[in-house]
Amino acid sequence: MALSEVYWDHQIPLPKLAPVQAKVTVALVALLCFINSYDGEFVFDDSEAIVNNKDLKPTTPLNNIWSNDFWGSNLSSNSSHKSYRPLTVLTFRLNYLLAGGLHPVGFHVLNIILHAVISSLMIDVFAILIGGLAYDVKGRILNYAPKTSLLAALFFATHPVHTESVAGIVGRADLLCALFFQLSFLTYCKAFNRGSDRDDRFSVRWVVVSLLLCAAAMLCKEQGITVLGVNAAFDVLLICNVNVYELSQRLLLRKIPLNMSEILRMGLLTRLALMSLGGLLMLYTRWRIMGTGPPAFTEVDNPASFAENIFLRMVNYNYYYSLNAWLLLCPWWLCFDWSMGCVPLIKSATDWRMVWLLLLWCFLIGLISQALCSQDSQRRRTLTLGLVLLVVPFLPACNIFFRVGFVIAERVLYLSSAGYCLLLAYSVGHCCCHWSKYRKLLCVSVLSLLCVYVARCALRSHQWRSEQSLFTSALSVCPFNAKVHYNVGKNLADRGNSTAAIAYYREAVRLHPTYVHAMNNLGNILKERNELIEAEQLLSKAVSIQHDFAAAWMNLGIVQNSLQKFEEAEQSYWNAIRFRKKYPDCYYNLGRLYADLNRHVDALNAWRNATVLKPDHSLAWNNMVILLDNTGNLGQAELIGREALKLLPNDHTIMFSLANVLGKSQKYKESEGFFLHALRINPNAASCHGNLAVLYHRWGKLELAKKHYELSLQLDPEAPGTRDNYNMLRRKLDQLKRPTP
């Protein structure tokens, strides 16, 4: 391949390192940026994608990952987000197996290592995009811009916008996608004959391998298919050395006939046809897998896409693009979620934020004009390929082809940032070459920028270590984001600080008056604090806004039951079950309602349904045993208790209830065994000691009864009935000690 020398590369303020040294350096810098997130928790989306994802567990058939989405839901479900990433889920499952469970350290460490590997490989990618393809006698790619490619890779390794992808475990999808993206591109480069005098020869085999790696990238995240666009641009600009500006002039003005024979001779159309067919096949397969229908997003997910005015819709899309560009230029204001008021819509052409759109397009037009019209062929190719690497991976997130389920997502910039880093490194080299008298100042500026990037990565990755720090950090970035307040409130509630949680939930509802999840959680806390009237009002409003909100219907039923509105409560429970067919907790609460109404058969049926849907539902099993015990059905209670213990062999509450049943049936030895087993599991259970004492009392083992009465009273001096039974036993023991007259 004919190449132009990169004259400005030696001006870059970096030492020239051997290829291996350069890659090791970049990898170590990448590790330095994110190493403090290695022992973080599962945070934010990790809960749904990993902690609650049944596809990770060894008991789930491995084939399930090929029919379920990223979150473990069936792709055919209406509630599925249609995110098909089976290879990513497979790596999660491997993490689970190797760690022997859900231990986040292994998940985080693999993410950090992947980022280090990707950053190192970026040196090869940048070297080819800047200098083209040329090989030494051993077949290794010659790097005509070692300092520029190293600097660009350092920028990529340290860019703070990558924190979400690296420190957030669900970012594994972006990391794996980027890795296979790189491998697909580098493999495509291998398709061309090394060092041959004939530039028209290429290997179909390597093109096919590149397509397979593209498919792998797509199976990690949908964005992976965009590598075909980058490969095509690389082929046109570097392999075929096509001058895009000159080509467009020929086509538009028709002054000089286009010589197609040269392009045909080089096999460009054949390669483009192969990639087009491969890409169409991938898209068609993906479409069939997701059920030939797009995911259903709401206005909350992406409000701009629901704007009726097309002009305002386009304006807001472009405003989103400018914000993404700003995150690349100044990655200081980072947030885990940018929805629900974080980015207010532009509703008129007089909005001052229109300035950002104008700045973005002025900058892009200037850059495009340089990429197309520059007299320097090296500059034309580098700028064009940098723009391609910046824009093409971002296309799936731009709302042009289909509606996306977010406003801004830092994760989608992981690949696009590579294009930005390439353009930034090229600009540094260009400035060093043309402003040599300011070279020291430029050197200090570059080193300062890298240090700021590293420090910002370290700070941001530390914030991603826990949900508390992550959610709290977003309050200063997006104070009007209802979801931020909701998540802060939820985290506080999970940690037992319900008073503070109420304030954040109220603020979330104030900022977003139709935020049903905040209403549901706030209603739950108020229910626990016995503020039942307001809880009922909130939950009633939630189900009126979202009629199929099953959890809110169930919670409303619980509140109505507490208010003794039994008929309304029963209807609320059945509404919840209607909208969520498999809802064991709702059946459990319905059983409690029936038990309060002395509808014993209905209660037993409801609890039985709960155990069928969730065999380890301890409370449902235990309530069945207790109800049958209280109604005198000791034989059936014993059968249910034994059945429950087969499924839950270490459940001390069921052992306790079954032991009571056996004691009443005068099966003292078996009853004693279950009581003692329950105490081995939970030795500080005052009620268990007290009931065991009653058993011994009935059995005639009075000294043992005295011992356990005393243990029970030590643990709970106010235990109902225990002191009376103890006093009765002491009187009996005193009588036995008196001499017979």
Which band does the percent of strand residues land in?
under 5%
Mean pLDDT over all positions: 88
Shape: elongated
Total count of domains:
4
List the helices and strands and how they pair.
Layout: H1 19-34, H2 46-51, H3 86-99, H4 104-131, H5 146-158, H6 163-167, H7 172-190, H8 204-220, H9 227-239, H10 244-253, H11 260-265, H12 268-289, H13 310-329, H14 354-373, H15 377-391, H16 413-434, H17 439-463, H18 467-473, H19 482-494, H20 498-511, H21 516-528, H22 532-545, H23 550-562, H24 566-579, H25 584-596, H26 600-613, H27 618-630, H28 634-647, H29 652-664, H30 668-681, H31 686-699, H32 702-715, H33 722-737
Top keywords for this entry?
741 residues; disordered N terminus; 33 helices; 0% strand; mainly alpha; Serine Threonine Protein Phosphatase 5, Tetratricopeptide repeat
Q: How would you characterize the overall build of this protein?
A:
The chain is mainly alpha-helical. The chain folds into 4 domains: 16-457, no CATH class; 497-579, Alpha Horseshoe (Serine Threonine Protein Phosphatase 5, Tetratricopeptide repeat), CATH 1.25.40; 582-587 and 597-663, Tetratricopeptide repeat domain (Serine Threonine Protein Phosphatase 5, Tetratricopeptide repeat, Alpha Horseshoe), CATH 1.25.40.10; 684-741, Serine Threonine Protein Phosphatase 5, Tetratricopeptide repeat (Alpha Horseshoe), CATH 1.25.40. The protein contains 33 helices and no strands. The radius of gyration is 33 Å and the shape is elongated. The model is unreliable at 1-5 and 195-199 (pLDDT under 50).
